[in-house]
Specification:
Elements: E1 4-5, H1 11-15, E2 19-25, H2 30-45, E3 50-55, H3 60-65, E4 73-78, E5 81-87, H4 92-103, H5 107-123
Parallel strand pairs: 1-3, 2-3
Antiparallel strand pairs: 2-4, 4-5
Length: 124
């Protein structure tokens, strides 16, 4: 599956189901340029995973929403819940491992922990 362009307009619909990996990048960023073919290859190897890219120059509001201060930044969702976020380009083996770990998550535990974190944040 080819990567899709993620924008503020299609963000919520894109991340609500399944496994979604988001690459925050910019055209002038050399590490982003090196990571792009790795991300693209993974998108072809994992047809059941949504791979999305956010051009931080074009989608500044979305980058700010994620508090992206360094690029590339990789964010992952599973079933609408953010489960991973890290700045820096990953080597192909690490990206493959990450996809496998996300697919194996016990989502009942993740939902419980996420709900608890949301409740704590609301009470702060």
């Amino acid at each position: 599956m080819a990567t899709l362009t993620l924008t503020a307009e299609n963000h919520d619909e894109t991340v609500k189901d399944g496994v979604v990996l988001i690459d925050f990048w910019a055209g002038w960023c050399v590490p982003c340029q090196r990571f792009a073919p790795i991300f693209e290859q993974a998108s072809e190897d994992h047809a059941d995973v949504t791979f999305a890219k956010v051009d931080t120059e074009d989608q500044q509001e979305l980058a700010a929403r994620y508090q992206v201060t360094s690029i590339p930044t990789l964010v992952a969702y599973r079933d609408g819940i953010p489960v991973f976020s890290q700045a820096g380009a990953l080597p192909q083996a690490a990206l493959e491992d990450l996809v496998g770990q996300i697919e194996k998550l016990d989502m009942d535990e993740v939902r419980k922990a996420y709900a608890e974190a949301q409740a704590q944040q609301a009470n702060s």
